Amino acid sequence: MFGLRHRKHKPSKVYGVISCDFEQDGGSSGTPNKNQTKDLKDFLKQFTKQLDELKAKATFYVQGDLAETFSKELKALNKKGHEMGLHGLHHELWGKVWFHNETPLTLDEMDMALDESALAFKAAGLPKSTNFRAPNMALNPKAYKVLADHGYTLDSSSPSYWGTKPRQYQREQLDVIPVTADPRPAFRMVHKVVPMTDFQVCNLYNVVNMSNKQFTQYIQRVVNYQAKHHLAQHFVFLTHPWEFKKLSNFDYCSPQNYKKLFSRFNALSKAFNIEWVTLETLNKRLNA
Ligand SMILES: [Zn+2]
After folding, report:
1. Is 281 helix (H, G, I), strand (E, B) or coil?
2. CA 91 to CA 64: how far, in whole Å?
């Protein structure tokens, strides 16, 4: 573990993936609501303006039932080189998680949800998706076969909050690239008694709570791990549209997050030679 902290590996290139789960407010804690349409449109406008300034192509995991409503915006983004993956049909559960008591889809229901989502993408004028991220990163391992049968080749559903290593792996015929988690666990005490291991996930909450310097050090630990294992250096960041507006039940959500987040990304671009790519492009590079 000490090696990860002290040895500095200077990679010639780091692939940065900005991924956004394009979904209803609060994800599984929320409900679809027509009033969110304007906010989601505003988000796409603001967020892509920032992506353009950074010269980044991003991956959007679209909740299937939102595809048609945002057809115009998503099609335009796709045309500009941003990738459109799938994030479930109605943000339902695709596997068991301890923090939701909702019943996950059966394999037959997954099959139907993928059919319905493919129709929604088609109606929205989007290409058929081959990249999947399950809501809440909860995916029944048997779902990989169903995804493969529907032509999916890439997945990013790994439960990174359990400390997934920042590397690609294979399930059925799919390549899996997890959202990045810190290879060095942080320890914290819960109620001052129970020690908890915390693998900081590269998500908006954690990134905006770091300083630019801390974020750069975080990515340094990730690329050190990958260099040690002779892997192409990369990281995958995760965010959601509702994290950029005031939400009563999550107090870190705020329009200030655009500025904070892209300041972290700009600082990172100064520290490393970053190529901001979609997950699909990263996967091609990792397979090359
Ligand atoms: Zn989600």
Report:
1. helix
2. 8
Cα 113 to middle of ligand 1, angstroms:
15
Q: 29 CA to middle of ligand 1, Å?
A: 9
For residues 23 and 249, what is the distance between their CA atoms, to the nearest angstrom?
17
Q: How many helices (H) and strands (E) does the chain have?
A: 9, 11
pLDDT digits (tens, 9 = 90+) for 245-287: 998 888 999 999 999 999 999 999 999 999 999 999 999 999 9
Distance 235 CA to ligand 1 centre (A): 19
Span from the CA of 226 to the centroid of ligand 1 (angstroms): 27
Taking the centre of ligand 1 as the mean of its atom positions, its distance from the CA of residue 59, in whole angstroms, is 14
Q: What is the DSSP letter of 169?
A: E
Output the CA 231–ligand 1 centroid distance in Å.
28
Tokens of 282: 């990263």
- Spatial distance between the Cα atoms of 141 and 205, rounded to a whole number of angstroms: 27
Can you give the pTM of this predicted structure? 0.93
- Angle at CA 20, nearest 5°, toward 40 and 117? 80
| Contact call for residues 221 and 183 (beta carbons, < 8 A) | yes
Distance 100 CA to ligand 1 centre (A): 13
Q: What angle do CA 172, 175, 179 make, to 5 degrees?
A: 125
Residue 215 is predicted with a pLDDT of 97
Above 60 in pLDDT, residue 168?
Answer: yes
Q: What's the gap in Å between 240 CA and the centre of ligand 1? A: 7
Q: Rounded distance, CA 14 to CA 219, Å?
A: 10
Angle (CA) 170 173 174, round 5°: 55
**Ligand 1 center–CA 24 separation, angstroms:** 8
